[in-house]
Amino acid sequence: MGKLPLLEVPIVDYGDDEPAMVRHRDEGEQRALALDNRGPIRFDEHGRLEQRILDAYERSGFYVFEGVLAQDELDDIELDVANILERAPITKGALVDRHGRPALGADGRSNNIGWTKPLADPLGGTKAANGRHPSKMTEPVAPEGAPEHVMQIVLGSLQFSPACLRVYGHPQLLAVAATINGDDFVPFNEAVWIKHPRLGGSVAWHQDGWTHWDSPELDSGSHGFNFMAQLYGCNAANGLWVIPGSHRTGKVDIKAMVDAAGSDRLPNAVPLICAPGDVAITNRQAVHGSYANTSPDPRVTINFGFHRRRSVLGVTSGGVHNPVAVYDAERIHERAKAIMYGIDARAQRYPDETRYVYQPFAGHEDEYRWTPETMDVLKDYNLLDLGI
What we know:
Number of domains: 1
Radius of gyration: 20 Å
CATH architecture: Sandwich
CATH superfamily: q2cbj1_9rhob like domain
Structural class: alpha+beta
Strand order of the largest sheet: 1-2-10-7-12-5-4-3
Mean pLDDT: 96
CATH topology: Jelly Rolls
Number of strands: 14
Helix content: 25-40%
Low-confidence stretches: none
CATH class: Mainly Beta
Oligomer: single chain
């Protein structure tokens, strides 16, 4: 943890709300650990995710795969995240880093860095992201000496981190994606979430999807899922919270839910409880969010998601993760090349692993060999993200 250039600030809490937050965290953790939706990745004799895991994921809307990433891989990720933080703009809107060099992503066409004021909720109650964050979270008072803004998310992360690209090509995780979304699964987007200790902002309660709510074919998997690999683990204070089963209820009136609770502490929500190297999978239709990180523990999450091909093909979408466009077969093919580069990058780093075969590109593996120059090939690749 000492490798990351994170800010040091005084102890901070929720003020008068802190006792209620402590109870909420404790009760939420107890509920989370009683759900029976965690354990190692297990496959059946056909190479598909075990049915009991699928059943638990369908029941809760999330599952914690334990011990997926070993310490050597976590060390690689930590070094890359430290490099990202060193190369980040010195503040919001800056074009140079703290050393006066061109900042990370400054020469790109996409907006790769997301910022927040310390302990703030920049989205709740606004029209941002199609208005999907309808209710504002509690905002603790920032500590004295806090910066005006802190970096909270790095989008298009595969172009900045070979270690993240290798996680993206993880054979077991891709086999999970194939089980849930079919062998022709397609990408969504990728990011690194950084919740600075005692500074990280909240993410207001929301459901991710926006295109298929009124579709007669809507089901619990229409908007895909996200994997969330944890560098340091996460807990009730700094982690994501989910309302179990909410992915199966269609579009939820979140504002009414918050109003009924009398605060942003939704009584049925549970936190992700993860150790370093655990990878959670969360349905994008589940109601989820996170509180301001008033704890001394940083959270670094390597985030990447996948869709069913039929949920994406022919859809006109965008406006949140990328410009509005038609997701035709050519675009999907171009965006999915990142999976192939991830698979090859991983195979080179971990030659003893069984390499994953991504069926839409089977037989064309030699066309997608990873080299250091691949990072330039991936520049601005996230403009082709498949957001639905």
